[in-house]
Design a protein that fits this description.
Length: about 260
C-alpha cells in the first residue's frame, strides 16, 4: 500500500515507535528511523528492517528538543528517498512530580520533545506533501491528551496541545489529500513498561498480575495492556485510502480509559 513512499517515525528505535516503523515497512514504505542515541544498534536496526521488508531504511540521529534537528531529519529523509509523505510524531519523554516541585528544565524538555517537535517536523514536511499531492501525518498523543492525572503537568499539557495542533493542521490541509490525526493510547506493553512491573511488585509487595491489574492498569477498564502492534496497525490504517476522510481526529486505543 505504501510502496515507494517515504516515512519518518520519530523516536522509533524501541517500543511504540519501532512497532509503527515495522508496520509501515511491511506495507512497503521506505523508512527513516530516529533517536538521539546514534549507536551501532540503531544503525543495525535500520539494516534489519530493510532486509526483512525489502525497503530502503536508514537511521538518522536527531534531538527532537532542537528545532533545527527536527527540520534536518525531514530534509535527510527527503534526500535519501524523496519527499516525506508519511510523518509519525512519536518521540516523547515523561517526568512525574508535584507542580510545586516540578523542575522547570524538565517542563521545557517535555514541551519541546512531546509537542514543539511535532510542529517543527510538520512545518518541514508539509511542502513536500503538497508537492506530491498526498500525505499522512500521525501524531502519537495519549489518553492524557483527553484526560488528566496528577503529577504529570508537563506531559498532560503537551499531549493536550498535540491534539490542538492536530486539529489545526487538519483544517489547514482539509482541501488537499493530506490528513492529520492523533492516536491516543492508554498503557502500552513496551520494554520500558515491562521493566516497571518488577519495580512496582517490589514497591507494593504484590504479585505480577495483581500489580498489573490494581496498580498499572487501575484506570484501564479492560485490565489489559495495549499491544504496540495495535498502534502500528492503526497507523497503517490511517495511511490507507479507507481513512481518506478521517482527519483532525483523536483516536483512542486505551482499553476504555477515556470512556469512564
Amino acid at each position: 500500500m505504501l510502496r515507494g513512499k517515504t516515512a519518518v517515525v520519530t523516536g522509533s528505535t524501541s517500543g511504540i515507535g519501532l512497532a509503527i516503523a515495522e508496520a509501515l515497512a511491511a506495507e512497503g514504505a521506505n523508512l527513516v528511523l530516529n533517536s538521539f542515541t546514534d549507536s551501532a544498534e540503531d544503525r543495525a536496526l535500520a539494516d534489519r528492517i530493510a532486509a526483512t521488508h525489502g525497503v530502503g531504511a536508514i537511521y538518522c540521529r536527531a534531538d527532537m528538543a532542537r528545532p533545527e534537528d527536527c527540520a534536518s531529519l525531514v530534509a535527510a529523509a527527503a534526500a535519501a528517498f524523496g519527499p516525506v509523505q508519511v510523518l509519525v510524531n512519536n518521540a516523547g519523554v515523561q517526568h512525574v512530580a508535584r507542580i510545586e516541585d516540578f523542575p522547570p528544565e524538565r517542563w521545557d524538555a517535555i514541551i519541546a520533545i512531546n509537542l514543539s517537535s511535532a510542529f517543527h517536523t510538520i512545518r518541514a514536511a508539509v511542502p513536500g506533501m503538497r508537492e506530491a499531492g498526498w500525505g499522512r501525518i500521525v501524531n502519537i498523543a495519549s489518553a492524557h491528551g483527553l484526560t488528566a492525572s496528577p503529577f504529570k503537568a508537563a506531559y498532560v499539557a503537551a499531549k493536550h496541545g498535540l491534539l490542538g495542533l492536530t486539529k489545526t493542521v487538519a483544517l489547514e490541509l482539509a482541501e488537499t489529500q493530506i490528513t492529520c490525526n492523533a492516536i491516543c493510547p492508554g498503557y502500552v506493553r513496551t520494554p520500558l513498561v515491562e521493566g516497571q512491573i518488577a519495580d512496582q511488585m517490589k514497591a507494593h509487595d504484590m504479585g505480577r498480575e495483581e500489580v498489573i491489574r490494581e496498580v498499572m492498569l487501575e484506570r484501564q477498564p479492560t485490565k489489559q495492556f495495549v499491544e504496540a502492534s495495535a498502534i502500528g496497525a492503526m497507523t497503517v490504517f490511517l495511511c490507507s485510502d479507507a481513512a481518506a476522510q478521517i482527519t483532525g481526529a483523536p483516536l483512542s486505543i486505551d482499553g476504555g480509559w477515556t470512556a469512564l
